[in-house]
Amino acid sequence: MKNLVQTIVRSIVDHEDKVQVNEIEGDSTSIIEVFVDKSDLGKVIGKNGKTAQSIRNIIYASSFKTQKRYTIDIDSK
């Protein structure tokens, strides 16, 4: 999932080299932390959070194979 999120976010932002994605794994839930440049934060979140919600929906649909829940946190460096 980490690679999927990283690919999606890097295709959205202007500063691809500053994208950092970390995955904190738990038993049934994992947290994916996404760090981007401050100037790209608005692009990743989107208007009214629609882009971030779309990323969450893609991860939710992809998680059915692993039967694991994922939480995505988006922040700037």
If classified by CATH, what would the architecture be?
Answer: 2-Layer Sandwich
Give the class-level CATH name.
Alpha Beta
Number of strands: 3
How many structural domains in the coordinates?
A: 1
Quick one: biggest sheet?
Answer: 3 strands, mixed
CATH fold-level name: GMP Synthetase, Chain A, domain 3
| Strand coverage percent | 25-35%
Strand order, biggest sheet?
A: 1-2-3
Give the distance, in angstroms, between the N- and C-terminal Cα atoms.
Answer: 21 Å
Computed over alpha carbons, the radius of gyration is: 12 Å
What structural category characterises the helix and strand content? alpha+beta
* The CATH H-level homologous superfamily: K homology (KH) domain
Helix coverage percent of residues?
25-40%
Overall, the morphology is: globular
Average pLDDT score: 95
In short:
With 77 residues, this protein is α+β, with helices and mostly antiparallel strands. The chain has one domain: GMP Synthetase, Chain A, domain 3 (2-Layer Sandwich). It has three helices and three strands, in the order H-E-E-H-H-E.
